[in-house]
Specification:
By secondary structure, the protein is an alpha+beta fold. It has 13 helices and 16 strands. It is elongated and about 120 Å long.
Length: 475
């Protein structure tokens, strides 16, 4: 049963003595007005919210409380309220003004008290200041728009959150910091004087954030010079009167802070302010964790790609990757008319090295070859382990003369290498077949011609370079 139903049928004179007693300590503003919208009673909370003494209000028209007097018609007059309606359905938000001149939004519920003749004797108006709640709701809506925007990158989102916080809290300086040891580093900052920039560092112990980070929570103070914090180095050095900051956690570990400050004192921070700055910091922490996870995934993907195209022993490319590159380079050679040389290289007497010195010696010979190749080749050259002790080299934009000169230098370096796997020097030589791509070549025909040339190098005495049939004249 609505509270006002208790008073139905009570005389106006009786109400005058009862209402102040009933509503005196209610934690919501209560104003009683007659049918002419003249105030007949106010409780303590109404005086507190509007800033008037009781004597200043009683007897005045309710219109004096409106931010816009023309809105005074929002207060009902006699006969304007449906007595059968549920009072809860009449809750509205009204724009009021305090004695100081400051406006605020009040959630307003109006309910009549009737006489025995069913005439409205008094209208009770219940007002709750919801200004901060409505502003917070608007800020949360803006925060959602920022964090879900596909048009902003991470830094731009953080900057937007810092601007949103400076506006909401009335603190003009906003900082996203990273803390390591005693070093406080600014990651992003909003500062009306443009004096703070990413990368600037301070001693952590000399910042207000040390009060937040060390406890891993939110902390705020609105008038530093009137509090215990006035002896803190940050106040002594920078004279910041107001501060509100929250710890940023990344995967459960403290990373830094999101904080707002001002050289001017402000009003005390509400529980909504504390929860809001905590929410800001949580989003930054979650986004940092997500970015780290994405970076790890990308790194893992790249490592898998490298593994998928790399020979595990030599670190050179594998056959599958070389087959892909052969197709691509042949297409490019035909499109632009560039020379393209392919060489197939095979170690001489490799089985003897394994049999006499062990398979570890054979692996060492393959690794030595790979190191020699990396030292001598261009970034555009591609070398792959083709199978066993065979290697295929792809030399883009290289004619037969240039390819032959390079392969001779490679063979000379390998032969002169200090290779003594078991203490005794072993000379490493290779039989090499060299072919130049023709316009009608595909991957298989080109490699087959290099393979035939390499076979002739083997049968012709090893440790030599042979050109593919038909390429001798061109070379």
């Amino acid at each position: 049963m609505p509270l006002t139903s208790v008073f139905q049928g009570t005389s106006l004179s009786a109400l005058g003595g009862v209402l102040p007693f009933v509503f005196a300590n209610m934690d919501v503003a209560v104003i009683a007005a007659d049918s002419e919208q003249r105030i007949v009673m106010v409780n303590r909370k109404a005086c507190e919210i509007f800033g008037y003494d009781e004597a200043e209000l009683v007897g005045q028209k309710t219109r004096m409380l409106h931010a816009d007097p023309d809105e005074a018609t929002d207060f009902p007059s006699a006969g304007s309220i449906d007595t059968e309606a549920d009072p809860g359905d009449e809750t509205v938000v009204v724009h009021y003004r305090r004695k100081s001149g400051h406006a605020f939004d009040g959630e307003t519920l109006i309910s009549p008290i009737d006489s025995p003749e069913q005439e409205h004797l008094v209208f009770l108006t219940f007002i709750r200041d919801v200004t901060h709640r409505l502003v917070t709701e608007q800020t949360l809506s803006q925060l959602h728009a920022i964090t879900t925007s596909r048009e902003l990158n991470f830094d731009e989102r953080v900057d937007a959150i810092l601007r949103l916080g400076t506006e909401h809290f009335g603190l003009p300086i906003g900082i996203f910091s990273h803390i390591e040891g005693d070093t406080y580093t600014i990651v992003r900052a909003i500062d009306p004087d443009n004096a703070l920039h990413p990368g600037m560092t301070f001693r952590f112990a000399e910042t207000y954030c040390s009060q937040v980070f060390n406890v891993g929570d939110v902390r705020g103070f609105y008038h530093a010079s009137k509090s215990d914090i006035r002896t803190h180095p940050c106040y002594i050095n920078f004279q910041l009167e107001a501060y509100l900051g929250a710890t940023i956690f990344v995967d459960g570990e403290r990373y830094g802070t999101l904080n707002f400050s001002s050289p001017e004192p402000t009003s005390p921070f509400s529980n909504q302010d504390i929860e809001l700055v905590r929410l800001f910091a949580q989003w930054v922490g979650h986004e940092l964790a997500r970015r780290e996870d994405m970076q790890k995934l990308e790194q893992a993907r790249m490592e898998l790609e490298v593994l998928a195209r790399t020979d595990s022993l030599t670190g050179l490319f594998n056959r599958r990757y070389m087959e892909e590159r052969l197709n691509a380079e042949l297409d490019r050679s035909r499109r632009y008319g560039n020379a393209l040389a392919v060489a197939l290289l095979d170690f001489d007497h490799f089985k003897a090295i394994n049999d006499k010195h062990g398979h570890a010696a054979g692996d060492a010979a393959l690794e030595l070859f790979a190191d020699t190749v990396r030292e001598l080749t261009r970034t555009t050259d591609i070398t792959a382990r083709w199978g066993g002790e065979e290697f295929l080299m792809l030399l883009p934009e290289t004619d037969l003369e240039g390819a032959q000169n390079f392969l001779e230098r490679l063979a000379d370096n390998l032969r002169a290498a200090d290779f003594a796997p078991t203490g005794k020097p072993v000379e490493l030589t290779m039989s090499i077949g060299l072919a130049l791509a023709h316009s009608d070549d595909d991957r298989d025909t080109l490699v087959n011609r290099a393979d035939e040339a390499m076979y002739r190098a083997k049968t012709g005495g090893r440790d030599r370079i042979c050109l593919a049939v038909g390429d001798e004249v061109a070379g």
